[in-house]
Amino acid sequence: MTESNNPLPISEKIGVLLVNLGTPDAPNAKALRRYLGQFLSDQRVIELPAVFWQIILRGIILPFRAPRSARAYQKIWTNEGSPLAAITKKQAQGLQKRMPNITVDYAMRYGTPSIPSRLEKLIASGCRRILLAPLYPQYSAASTATVQDEAYRYLQKIRWQPNLRSLEPYYTHPAYIQTLKKNIEDQIKALDFKPDSLLLSYHGMPVKTRELGDPYYFQCQATSQALSSLLDIPVITSFQSRFGSQKWFTPATDMTLKELPSKNIRNLAVAMPGFSADCLETLEEIALQGKSTFLEAGGENFAALRCINDSEESLAMLEILVNQGLSGWLKSGE
Ligand SMILES: C=CC1=C(C)c2cc3[nH]c(cc4nc(cc5[nH]c(cc1n2)c(C)c5CCC(=O)O)C(CCC(=O)O)=C4C)c(C)c3C=C
Ligand SMILES: [Fe+2]
Ligand SMILES: [Fe+2]
């Protein structure tokens, strides 16, 4: 940099990057191999010795899982693409409308648009302060930490780093709990049956991660507790989407759905508070597979409730969380 191209005074622009997990670009085996290959090579997700795991992943897991997962994605794919990507994009657009003084964008931890590409874009547009907002209410190393790792890996490569902050996990934040409450109550009211119970199903994790100090399990329980104290319906918590042969958190959602009818719970609503947007795990695993499991086990009525997605309440919640995350950065009145 010479004196003639001195970039100061710099712009005061602030960027917010919403980040979710990621999704394949298409519902076919080739795109699934690429996406799952990247996702399941992340050592924050699969904590096994890398060389050993790559042999299993490339030789056994991907050849079988990619075509099977592709068929599952085909059942939920929309005209706008993968639901997770389409909803995350709308969340960013909706938040941008509510917060015209900052620049809002979104990225995916795996697949596209990548975190480095969107950080680069924000920086190029003059953002010297960036708030990273992983859309995971409950912190886990496999979700939140890996987003932060990826952002800092990119920053390691650049000379003039922006100031980077990260949104705190918001598992009992009043704005989040109230948004969930309204989302759940509105949908339950609109059902043509009265549920006996509400199942709160969170994405599972290996038990070992809890033993090693990951707070995710406890934060999920705290969300359930905060929510159940405000809802007028009995609440049950379970963990879904088991992967691999390790022990995962219990009770498992699929086992719970099998057992509930024999415990006289035959009319069930299921909400998935850990997912900010509907995705394969909510629309296929629960709304389709979970429903069959429950009805085949003797259940009578089943409803998988929509996630908070890009509803007005969800955008208002994001605005509150982001404003808190930006505290001290925004000039008063902005
Ligand atoms: C909500 C937070 C999530 C945590 C924690 C999480 C941990 C975790 N996931 C896997 C394996 C898979 N997850 C898959 C899909 C998936 N996972 C999350 C969120 C969390 N995962 C979301 C939002 C999605 C849906 C993505 C979409 O495109 O809609 C998949 C891929 C799908 C499949 O083939 O079944 C896998 C695999 C592990 C191993 C793990 C923690 C160790
Ligand atoms: Fe997952
Ligand atoms: Fe799954």
Automatic annotation (TrEMBL):
One MF annotation (Gene Ontology) recorded for this entry: metal ion binding
Pathway(s) this gene product operates in, as recorded in its UniProt entry: Porphyrin-containing compound metabolism; protoheme biosynthesis; protoheme from protoporphyrin-IX: step 1/1
Superkingdom to which the source organism belongs: Bacteria
GO cellular component, one term: cytoplasm
Keywords: Cytoplasm, Heme biosynthesis, Iron, Lyase, Metal-binding, Porphyrin biosynthesis
Subcellular location as annotated: Cytoplasm
InterPro entries, per the entry: Ferrochelatase (IPR001015), Ferrochelatase_AS (IPR019772), Ferrochelatase_C (IPR033644), Ferrochelatase_N (IPR033659)
First and last residue of the signal peptide: none
SUPFAM superfamilies from the UniProt entry: Chelatase
UniProt entry tagged with the keyword Metal-binding: yes
Entry-linked Pfam families: Ferrochelatase
Catalyzed chemical reaction(s): Fe-coproporphyrin III + 2 H(+) = coproporphyrin III + Fe(2+); heme b + 2 H(+) = protoporphyrin IX + Fe(2+)
EC numbers for this chain: 4.98.1.1
Top enzyme category: lyase
Any single GO BP term: heme biosynthetic process
Binding sites annotated in the UniProt record for Fe(2+): 203, 281
Family from the record: Belongs to the ferrochelatase family.
PANTHER family: FERROCHELATASE, FERROCHELATASE, MITOCHONDRIAL
Function noted in UniProt: Catalyzes the ferrous insertion into protoporphyrin IX.
Protein's name according to its UniProt entry: Ferrochelatase
Organism the protein comes from: Zymomonas mobilis subsp. mobilis (strain ATCC 10988 / DSM 424 / LMG 404 / NCIMB 8938 / NRRL B-806 / ZM1)
Taxonomic classification: Bacteria, Pseudomonadati, Pseudomonadota, Alphaproteobacteria, Sphingomonadales
Gene of this entry: hemH
